[in-house]
Amino acid sequence: MITLENVKNNDEVQALVQGAQKQLDGLGYTEHSLRHVGIVSARAGEILETLGYPKERVELAKIAGFLHDIGNCINRKDHAHSGALLAYNILKDIGMNAKDRTEIMMAIGNHDEETGTAVSDISAALILADKSDVHRDRVTNQNLATFDKHDRVNYAVTNAKLKISKEERKITLNIEIDTELCPVLDYFEIFIDRTIMSKYAAKYLNIWFELIINNTKLL
User: How many Cβ atoms from other residues are within 10 Å of residue 179's Cβ?
Assistant: First the structure.
């Protein structure tokens, strides 16, 4: 079985991850580099593992998480679709069987809120992991005076934890926002589509999605 380590150590994958971040830097987007894909990979695997899915599905979720943003090296627009095709061909070249690489392609192709939705356990885990990575560490712009709304919202998030409970059939995103930098309402203005997407992804896994901001349950 092809593992996450096989994918991480692939030179083509490394080049695509770095190229994606280079392009997003040029566009002024938040961080999508090894930090982000590493977090998403680990969380996607943790979600399925905690819920008792087979280790093979867990590994595929980790791989999908690591590869999910490589399409940004082509263009930010439709990056989920282009990234899915890139991932499929890379995984084919390194020897992954057709069934598994199709699962990963399907998950990556559905991770963006503009065009995607949960269509499998792996895609649901990827969505929940990706949309939960909100934090000031993702802000690459160092000049607060030039922050746009996305920069300000992400920078205001001082802590974000994702907790999965198999017993309660619940996944909780617990966020701390510095309201002197950004009101909570601005978070919802930016992330309402992602929040709704996360809710339906959790429903696909037969669990409940809960959002807590500054110790207040909002969903």
Answer: 13
The CA dihedral of 21, 27, 29, 31, to the nearest 10 degrees, is 20
As beta bridge partners, residue 216 has: 213
Say whether pTM exceeds 0.85: yes
Residue ranges of domains in the chain: 4-217
Instruction: Please give the backbone phi and psi of residue 156, each rounded to the nearest 5 degrees, phi first.
Output: -75, -20
For residues 149 and 155, what is the distance between their CA atoms, to the nearest angstrom?
10
Q: What is the pLDDT of residues 4-62, one digit of tens each?
A: 999 999 999 999 999 999 998 888 888 788 999 999 999 999 999 999 999 999 999 99
124 exposure class (CB count in 10 Å sphere: 0-12, 13-18, 19+): buried
Fold classification of 4-217 is: Hypothetical protein af1432 (1.10.3210)
